[in-house]
Structure prediction request, 97 residues.
Amino acid sequence: MALATTIVGDGILVSLTTSKRQWGIWSGGVKQGYTETQVEEVREWVALTEAIAESTATTATQPGGDAVATYVASEDNRTIGSYKLTKTTTSTTVTQD
Prediction:
């Protein structure tokens, strides 16, 4: 199997986690409620050469908006010399109830 020298597509969805937190603030006898929703998505690209995994991680851009992305290039299989690129995107929104 030849190793990939380019990153193609959206990768493989590894996990998707959603968490919610609710709280309220009392002011003048009136409670104002808020909900914070955090979504974390992890995607991977596998069977990459070291060069493409490393260069993609070091030159990666942020997705914009309220989302933040972290990129990690790591060894995947030492025997065949393959690497993987993992992208974790986290976004947080707060809404007033």
Remarks:
- The chain has a mean pLDDT of 95.
- Residues 33 and 50 are 49 Å apart (CA to CA).
